[in-house]
Amino acid sequence: MTHVNRVTEVLKNEEVRMIGICGMGGVGKTTMVKEIIKRLAGLKVFDNVVMAVVSQSPNIQKIQLEIAEELSFKYDENTESGRARRLHGRLMEIKRILIVLDDVWTELDFEGIGIPSHKGCKVLLTSRNLEVCNAMGSQEIFTIPVLTPEESWELFREIVGKPLDYPDLAKRVTNECAGLPIAILTVAKALENKRKHVWDDALKQLQSSAPGSISSMNDKVYSSIQCSYDRLESDEEKSCLLLCCLFPEDYDIPIEYLVRYGWGRGYFSNTDSVEEARNRVYSLVDKLQRRFLLLDGKSEEHIKMHDIVRDVAIQIASREPHRFLIRCDAEKKGWPKIYDHYTTISLIPINIDEIPVGLDCPKLELLHLEGECYSENSMDIMCKGMKELKVLALVDVCGISALPSSLGVLKGPSNLVPKWLSVFNRYI
Ligand SMILES: Nc1ncnc2c1ncn2[C@@H]1O[C@H](COP(=O)(O)OP(=O)(O)O)[C@@H](O)[C@H]1O
Ligand SMILES: [Mg+2]
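Above: the input record for the complex with adenosine-5'-diphosphate. Below: its predicted structure, written as tokens.
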């Protein structure tokens, strides 16, 4: 019996309240729960099935909103505890409901979210960490195994979709993917239609995979995604992908942001207007999606990045020559002492206490600030040394009614209206 069938069977058991699905990043947990949700829809085991993505930096409000959206109601309450009470009440009204919590990294406070403990309310969670599944009180835990070499090979061939020119080489490349679908997908797409030299080179890169320095990730996955990134056809594709790192995990990234950021920084060749830049970005996004480096977002105008791809891309973006500083996670990573080499900074605080003021960033070209209050004075100080700044994005930032005077006029393509380019702040 497949895992999907087994989990579905266990969910029918009245005694079971919580089930965990665990496995390595990129092994197929999210895909599996989506499949289970589809299966359940036909079986009428639950009156409602809702799904929320928890991710590395759990944001209770986001989880509450996602569940409410799926149940088609809106909160009038402004506080977390108020929303928790409301959600609790709403969930108690439903006789049989399944709440799927995807990508749980730490123990969650169900009461704080508003998830009740009545028998008809079941929880299915996924995590990379077995301990988390246990700690949350899962009565049954399913571990998703990596693909066997045969399954891996079948998937590789399916992705390429036509007879392979170098089947032996392709088999060896597949074996380097550690049975993880995400690695197989990205590598297969990066190499299809490529000459033998490119295959040889990729095999060598995968075999000598240096540890990816992300402890929660399989090194093979890291090098597979790096391998796919390295083989993107243009710097424009690479830049477009790296811009997607500026947003939090599991974020629906408005493609328009990529347009403005890329255009503002002059990333695109032969583009004379923002319309042309927009066309370019949509075609770059399309290419990245076909390589499995980006995923569909909630609409045609949004895209998403798989959490694993994002982790690798952040590592790449942090290094030379890109030099991004990204702080979108609650996880305390601390602050660097020196800022003078950064070209791009994104600060989206979720429970971050202090944001450094007075950053000395002479090379900074792009500053994205989101969801925080800044005084005009602190913005002025913060932007003082930013002589190269081309794009300033203040998204849902309060406390500011005009561009920081220390900036003067932003640099950038000369036919750009700076304010239009730079500020998309609902408060202005
Ligand atoms: N059994 C499978 N066969 C083919 N592709 C798969 C399979 N499982 C997952 N994938 C693909 O692999 C990628 C990673 O899967 P995902 O479910 O997001 O992994 P996880 O949630 O464990 O990180 C996705 O693009 C998905 O479409
Ligand atoms: Mg997932």
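Notes for the reader.
Residues 23, 25-31, 155, 181-182, 185, 292, 306, 308 surround adenosine-5'-diphosphate (ligand 1) (CB under 6 Å).
Confidence is low (pLDDT under 50) at residues 413-428.
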